[in-house]
Amino acid sequence: MNDATITWKPRTNDTLFELTETRNLPTPDQTQTEADTVPTQHRLGEIAANILANKQQIEYSFLEIGRLLNEAKAVVPHGGWLSWLHHKVDFSESTAKRLIRLAQECENRSALADLGYTKASMLLRLPEPDRDTFIVNAHEVGGAEKEVADMSTRELEALVRKHNKARKGEANSSIGQEPEAKSIETKKAFHDKFEHLNLCIDSLLDYIANMNNDKETCNDLCAALRTFCKSTLSSLSDIQHNSRPNSL
Fold this sequence. Notes:
Elements: E1 4-10, E2 17-23, H1 28-55, H2 58-75, H3 81-89, H4 93-105, H5 109-115, H6 117-123, H7 131-136, E3 138-141, E4 144-147, H8 153-173, H9 179-209, H10 215-242
C-alpha cells in the first residue's frame, strides 16, 4: 500500500482490534500545481513552434513574434527565460527585448507592420511619444516630401538622428533645466546608440551566417562593422563630454 499510514484502533463492539488505513492524499495546492505544469509546457511548445514558423518572415511578422515572446516570458519558470530563448527559438536576449518592445510600445500597429522589422527597429530610437506621429507624417528628405514607408533605411536613419538632435536642442534651450534631467537625457542617448549598435551587429551576424563561406564579402562586412563601431564610440564620447557639468 503506497502512500498510506497503518494504524490500529479498537472495535466498537468488542475488545479486539481492527486494521485501518489512512491514505496520504496530496493537498489541493499540490494537485493544482502538478495539473498546471502539463498545460504550461504544452503552451510553451506551441509558442515556440509558432515563433519558429514566423521567424522565416521576421521582416513582416515581427509584431506577432514579439507578442508570442511576451506571452512566453510570462509563463516560463523563473530563471529559465534566457535558456528558453536560446534552446527553443534561438534568439538573443537583446533581439527578444527589441521584438517585445515593438509589440508593446507602438499603438499604430498596422503602419508599423508595413515598415518591416529593420525600419521599425530604427523607430525605437525615437522618444516614445513621438513615434506614432512620426510614422504617419510626411517628412522632407533630399528636398522632397516622403513618408517613412517610402524611405530607404539610410534615409530613415538620418531622419531619426536629425529628429533626435532637434529634440535635444529644444530641451537644452529650456530655461531652468535641472542637472538631473540632463543626466536622464545623456543616459537615453547612450541607450539609443547601443540599441542601434546591437541591431546592426545582429543583422550582420544573421547575414554572415547565410553567406555560404563568402570570405571576401565577410571581410568587407567586418571592416564596415569596425568603422561603424569606431564612429559610434566617438559619438558616445561626444555625448559624455557634452554632459559634464563644466560644459553646461
